[in-house]
Design goal:
This protein is of the alpha/beta class. It folds into two domains: 6-175, 3-Layer(aba) Sandwich (Glutaconate Coenzyme A-transferase); 190-430, 3-Layer(aba) Sandwich (Glutaconate Coenzyme A-transferase). Helix content is 25%, strand content 20%. The chain has 15 helices and 26 strands. Strands 1-11-8-6-2-3-4-5 form an eight-stranded parallel β-sheet, with helices on both faces. Strands 13-12-18-23-25-26 form a six-stranded mixed β-sheet, sandwiched between helices. The chain has a three-stranded parallel β-sheet with strand order 9-17-15, with no helix packed on it. Helix 6 (190-202) packs across helix 7 (215-222) and helix 13 runs antiparallel to helix 14 (414-425). The termini are far apart.
Amino acid sequence: MNQPRYTTAAEAVKLIKSGHHVYVQGSTSIPEVLMQALADRGHELRDVTLYTGFAVAKGPSPVCRPEFKDSFLVDSFFVSNSFRKWIAEGYGSVTPRFLGEVPALFRDGTWKIDVALINCSMPDPDGYVSFGVSADVATSAVECADIVIAQINPQMPFSYGDPVIHISRLAAAVQVDDPLVEVPTATPTEKELKIGGYIAELIPDGATLQIGVGGIPNAVIAALGNHKHLGLHTEAMTDGVLPLLESGVIDNSLKRVEPGKSIASLALGSRRLYDFMDYNKDIIFRDVAWTNDPFIIAQNPKVMSINSCLEIDLTGQICADSIGTRIFSGVGGQHDFVYGSSRSEGGLSFLAMLATTNKGLNKIKPVLTEGAGVVTTRFQTNYIVTEYGAVDLRGKKLAERAKLMISVAAPQFREELDRAAAERFGYSYLRLK
């Protein structure tokens, strides 16, 4: 049998019982129909733990209702927009973990998993479906779950690699036609284009790219059009890389890991990206435990890790997951790729941000905001880039770092930062003037 036997969403989620631990697929492929059906059972269920990770949802999750506070216990390892308010209000919880280490929690039994809810492509002729845009943590969750419930969705691209499962493994299948969330390509601002230019100048031909999400990474991509023989080994694939793939700038010819193939763990972009991925054998999606393994990353030459952050202190400590004590997102792969690039022959890492917030507040701080989480430590920081330039902190003393950080801060805050550095580091800083 190469076609699933379909049931309704309401019938499918009856397989979920009180006390079950349920993984909900993320990226742009949250199984929204199944989640609504699960929410419809909220009054009859208790203590259902929902594991959630990196995702972009259409809106707040239907399970996030005060009357369901004892029905669904949200445990997030990367706070998404669907659960951010729920968690901020204290109903849900966050378990800190590098995204690449989450699969081990399923596989070694630290986190029990009874059910996986996934969003899949139509079956191929052999009866295999793909959970396309989201291999990441979904691969291990599906592997470890006793029960797999899937939406079978013609909107989901078929991607090769790890996110493939035979329909015989599905405990229930629900036929839907539900568009994936589309994440428009962020158009870089003039300041972001400056940052992109600074970084692109430091990227050599033949480099292997890991590129984050947002205006700054897209600004870097926009400045790479004249480069040659670039490779792609990244956590998230976005629309931004399409021009480089289509023009042949990214040809993966000099990579040592999966040469000739673009590697990613998840995708978030427009329908154009999803269509480009569909049955494209030049793109391979892998378990995030593999894509984000620093020792695999480091096997490629000239790994260029490009990520953004929320604030940085004068010593190079990077906050990328919280605003003060409020958890805003998660770690993702930043730490893994910063470390992997440091072990790569000719590798570099770039942590980039605008020097000020939208409200004009300084993002380069004497010390991080109270409660801010350190995602990348000062022991690992390489290049810091703002619209005022790029500075390399590698091998620099604390006082030297402070001086460099001040040089890329917004000019109106440099005097204040200079006083703070002089007070903190004393003569070792003053003698640099």
